TrEMBL record:
<feature type="domain" description="ABC transporter">
    <location>
        <begin position="12"/>
        <end position="248"/>
    </location>
</feature>
<keyword id="KW-0067">ATP-binding</keyword>
<protein>
    <submittedName>
        <fullName>D-methionine transport system ATP-binding protein</fullName>
    </submittedName>
</protein>
<dbReference type="InterPro" id="IPR003439">
    <property type="entry name" value="ABC_transporter-like_ATP-bd"/>
</dbReference>
<dbReference type="Pfam" id="PF00005">
    <property type="entry name" value="ABC_tran"/>
</dbReference>
<dbReference type="InterPro" id="IPR003593">
    <property type="entry name" value="AAA+_ATPase"/>
</dbReference>
<keyword id="KW-0029">Amino-acid transport</keyword>
<keyword id="KW-1003">Cell membrane</keyword>
<keyword id="KW-0813">Transport</keyword>
<dbReference type="InterPro" id="IPR017871">
    <property type="entry name" value="ABC_transporter-like_CS"/>
</dbReference>
<dbReference type="GO" id="GO:0005886">
    <property type="term" value="C:plasma membrane"/>
</dbReference>
<dbReference type="GO" id="GO:0006865">
    <property type="term" value="P:amino acid transport"/>
</dbReference>
<keyword id="KW-0547">Nucleotide-binding</keyword>
<comment type="similarity">
    <text>Belongs to the ABC transporter superfamily.</text>
</comment>
<dbReference type="InterPro" id="IPR050086">
    <property type="entry name" value="MetN_ABC_transporter-like"/>
</dbReference>
<keyword id="KW-1278">Translocase</keyword>
<dbReference type="GO" id="GO:0005524">
    <property type="term" value="F:ATP binding"/>
</dbReference>
């Protein structure tokens, strides 16, 4: 076990990860030598403007993307040096929720939530009733996605992620398709899930208030580079708005 002091366990460790893509004008680094550590049970944010590399970085953790260079470990295990069986096991411990919910429209809420259990065998999954009650939709099991509001669809997305009892939950812009009050409700569901299921949560978003309400720390990315890791504390500090990074600091530290 890797520790950073008493009671602090680094669950996720990224060391100088780079992802190079071919762009119109040649190769470019969507993620550029990023190193960061996320502690077990933390809610950690990744923020930055569109194209900053947030989603790419998030997707390294469950190996949906692989870095061109660098090292990613989860629980002390190199994510990109696993057998197929080990990789499946690794991915089974990670849930994901998406901006556009990714529900199958021809399947009922119950069928959507059960999908992960059809793909893999889990030791102690929750039941559809349990997760639906948790996200506040106890009566919607037989509805179809087209009969739900955006906020309800995201609750179903969260229920689908929770049914396997993941150790890590990756949230890619979980509230970006929702209005302000629905966003608050979804943030509350995620915070309750964090407490109830003892998970580590990573949240990618460009919404600073979501970060402020949920996270203890967040990484700021700009053009693939890690600019800062901010400890989010309600202290008042004078900041100016010279750059995007300055605005982030202002909202998160002073708001
Ligand atoms: N498969 C790909 N091939 C080429 N370029 C890609 C590919 N995937 C992502 N990119 C580019 O890499 C950069 C980072 O993308 P990424 O989706 O990680 O950013 P992001 O910060 O999550 O952005 P957004 O907030 O808009 O989703 C962008 O310029 C994007 O266009």
């Amino acid at each position: 076990m890797v520790t950073d002091g008493p009671g602090v366990f680094r669950l996720i460790n990224m060391n100088s990860v780079t992802k190079t893509y071919q762009g119109k004008n040649g190769p470019f680094n969507a993620v550029d030598k990023v190193s960061l550590k996320v502690e077990e049970n933390e809610i950690f944010g990744l923020i930055g403007e569109s194209g900053a590399g947030k989603s790419t970085l998030l997707r390294f953790i469950n190996a949906l993307e692989s870095p061109t260079e660098g090292y990613v470990s989860v629980d002390d295990t190199d994510v990109f040096n696993l057998s197929r069986k080990q990789l499946r096991q690794h991915q089974k411990g990670i849930g994901m929720i998406f901006q556009q919910f990714n529900l199958l429209n021809n399947k009922s809420v119950r069928e959507n939530i059960q999908l992960p259990l059809e793909l893999h065998k889990y030791e102690k999954p929750l039941t559809v009733e349990e997760v639906l009650a948790f996200v506040g939709l106890p009566d919607k099991a037989d509805n179809y996605p087209s009969q739900l509001s955006g906020g309800e669809k995201q609750r179903v997305g969260i229920a689908r992620a929770l049914i396997t009892r993941p150790k890590i939950l990756l949230c890619d812009e979980p509230t970006s398709a929702l209005d302000e009050s629905t966003t608050e409700e979804i943030v509350d569901v995620l915070k309750r899930a964090h407490e109830a299921f003892d998970m580590t949560i990573l949240v990618v978003t460009h919404e600073l208030n979501v970060i402020k309400r949920m996270c203890r720390r967040c990484a700021v990315l700009e053009k693939g580079r890690l600019i800062d890791i901010i400890d989010i504390a309600p202290k008042t500090r004078k900041q100016s708005y010279k750059s995007y990074h300055d605005r982030v600091l202002k909202v998160l530290k002073n708001g």
